[in-house]
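Structure tokens please, single chain.
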Amino acid sequence: MSDLLNKTRREYGLHLDPFLESKQVNQYNSPFETKENDDEPDENSKAYIPLSLARSKMKQLTQEMQLMKLKHMELIDQITEKYEKLTAEQRKQLSEAVETVKGRAQKRIDDNKETIQKMNEELVRLREAAKNMDRQLREEKRSKDT
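Here you go.
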């Protein structure tokens, strides 16, 4: 198999990692899957964790996770509180700005209404003056014609 592999590599100009070349290639000619697996323990040696150790580690891990959850929830509450304060402050500032704009607009409206009222009074006065002048001119014209 290795002769075939070396021949194929020479033909196609392939160069593999020297570490991979030292291992046997599996039946699919994949240099990444090897027949030898150094990471797995032998059949005779099995990993053993004492049950009491495993339980104590799980208990410790559970306690740590509960503490992390409490800290996380406190942080969420703090962030939520800050967000609500900022939101309330922004709403207050916005309402103050809106009230200021409304106040200015109402002042302009009141000023314009006052100006319109003064102009209407002036118009009425000018109409009266025009009527009086027209009457005088007609009387003068009659007195001249007679």
